[in-house]
Write a structure and sequence with these properties.
Mean pLDDT: 96
Number of helices: 22
Number of strands: 21
Radius of gyration: 28 Å
Strand order of the largest sheet: 10-9-11-12-14-13-19
Shape: elongated
Structural class: alpha/beta
Distance between the termini: 91 Å
Low-confidence stretches: none
Length: about 675
Amino acid sequence: MSLDPIERVGYATSLSKEDLFTIYKSMKTQRVLEDRLLKMYKGGQLSGAVYPGIGQEASMAGIGAGMGPKDIFGGTHRDLGVQIMRGVTLQEIALNFYGKKEGPSKGRDGNSHFGVLDKGTLMVVSPLPDSAPVAVGWALASKQSKSDVVTIANCGEGATATGTWHESINLAGVLKLPIVFTVQNNQFAYSSPNKTEFRTPNVADRADGYGLPSYIVDGNNIYSVIDSVYEACENARRGGGPTLLELVTFRHYGHAGHDPAEYVEEEVRSFWLERDPITRFEDSLIKEGLFTKDFFDDTEKELEETVVETLNWAKKQDDPDPSIEINEIFYTKDILGSINDEKEKKTMNYIEAINNSLDEAMEENEDVFIMGEDIGQFEGAFKATKGLYDKYGSERVIDTPISEAGFVGAAVGAALAGKLPIVELQFYDFLYPALDQLTTEAAKYYWKAGRAVPMVVRGPTGAGTRSGPFHSISPESLLSHHPGLKVVTPSNPYDAKGLLISAINDPNPVMYLEHKKLYRKPELKMDVPIGLYEVDLGKARVLLEGSDVTLIAWSGMVSVAEEASFKLKEEGISVELIDLRSIIPLDEETILKSVEKTSNLCILQEDVPFSSVASEISSIVVEKGFWSLDNPIKRVTPPNTHIPFAPVLEDAFVPNVDSVVKAIIELDT
C-alpha cells in the first residue's frame, strides 16, 4: 500500500474503465519489459545500452494519455512508456533493441533510439534534447496549416541546461506555437543532482524568462500527469501557445544499465520507492472497485510471459543487409522537374535570380516558407528576401530570434510535417551552432527512420569581401563529410535559380551555398528564364572545351578559373573547364571523362586544402582514372589557415588568376 494515495479529478474523471486499464497496462508493460532488458544487459545478453525508466512510468504513460490522437511526441531515450501509449508495439521495441532489419530504425540504431512517425513519435537520438527543435517545427507547420495538432517536447531536467532546449522554448514562445514542453525531473542528470544543474528552485521557474505559463506536477501521480498534459494540450490547441510542465519523479535505477547509482542517498531512494507510481495507481483502482489485487497479479504474469516470448521471437528475426546501406542515404526523387520553354527571360544578377526563384517557388506552392534572422521587413542582410514579406506575410517569411539550432531544427520538423522550409543563414559561418540539428536529425532521418526531410539551408559563403574570419567560410567540405546532406554551389545567375528550384523540390536536406562576392557582380549579369525551371543536382557543366588539362572549380572560383583559362590559351595551353555546380552529389562521370581526354588535372578551390573537396576529387581520380594521368594532380587552394581580415592578407589567402596560371604551366612543362 502506498504512503501517498491518489484519486481522480479533472479530465481523468472522464476516463472509462477500459481507458484506465490501457494506461495501467502500458505502465506495467514498460516496467516488466525494462526490468527484463536490464537483467539481460547485465547478463551480457544484450548489445548497446539500456536506459531504464523504471519509477517514471506515470510521467510517461500520463503524457501519452493526455495527448490528442493526432498529436506528435518528441522524446528522449527514457520514454518507452509514451511510445507504448502511442501504439508502438512490443514487437517493434524488441526488434529495435536487437538491431533487426524490420525494427523501426532498421538496425541502424539500437535500444530506445527510435521513433515511429506513423504513430506520432519522433525519432529519438542520443544528444539531448535534440528532438525539441524538431517538435517546434512540427508545431509551426501545424499552426500554418491550422491542423489542430499539438506537439510535445519531452526531456529530463539535465537537458534543460542545453542551448538547444532554451532556443526551442524561446522560439516556440515568440511564435506562440501549439506545443507543450514536458520535463521529467528525475532528480539526477546522470549522476548530477538538481542543485548542480540549475540555480532556480525548480525547472518550471525558467518559464518566467520566456513569458510562458508553467506548472509543477507530481510525476508519480498518473492522474495529475494526465490532467496537466491534457489541459496544456487543449490550451495550445485553442491558440494559447506553449506551456512548460515539470513532472517531478524518480528513476529507481541509474542513468543506464552500467550505472549502479551509488550517488543516490538511501533516504532519498526510500522516499521515492514508497511513492511508486504503479503501486499508487493500483491502490486507487482497487479503492474505486474497478480491479482487484488478483487481477493485477494475473496481468503481471501474463505480461512477463508476453515480454519473454516477444524478445525470444525478435532475437531470431532477420539481421539487416549491409549491401543496401549506401543506397538508402538519400530519398529518391520521384517527381518531374519544372518544365520551362525559357522563351521569356529577364536580365538578372546573382542575388536577383535567387530572390526571383524564392518568389516563384512560394507563389507556386503554399507549403514553401522561409525563416531566418532579419529576413522579414528588413529583407535579409543581403536583401535576398526583398519584397517577400510584404507579398506573403509573417507566417511564410518568418523572422526568428538568433537561434540557429532552434530554427534549423524547426525546419526539420516542419519538413516532416509536410512543409517545404527554406532557412536563411545570415552567414554560413553561423552554421556551427546548427550543425548538430543538421547532422543528427536532418541527415539521418531518412536513413534511420525512413522519412524524407525536404528542406533547404541557404546563405552567403566565401571570402574576398574583407569580412574577416567569422563571415567568410567556404563550408562545402565540412558539409559534404556528413552522409545525407546534399551540397549545392552555383556560380552564375542561371544556375543560381535553377539549382535553387531543384533544391526546393528535392526530398532531401540541401545545403545551398551562395558566394556573396557573386551577389551583385556586374559582369555576371545574364538572361534568366521567367518561371520555374530546374538544373539537375549532381550534373556538372563543361564551361570550356579543351585538350591539354582539366581544370575543376565551383562557386566563386569559377570566374577565376575562366579568366585563367583564357590567359593559358594565349600561352598555347588548351583548358577544359568544369563547373561542378554541386559537391554532393558529385558528377564523377564528367570529371573522369575529361581527365581521360586531357590526361592532366588541376583543382581550384577557395576552401583550405586539408581534408577538402579537392582532396576527395584527387582521390577519386587516382583510384578510378590513374592510368589516364600523365602528371601529378595539382591543387590550387588557400594556405591551411583561417581567413584573415587585412586586405593584403586576404588577397594572399584567396587563390587568384596568376596562381592558377602558374600551377597549370608547371603541370604542362
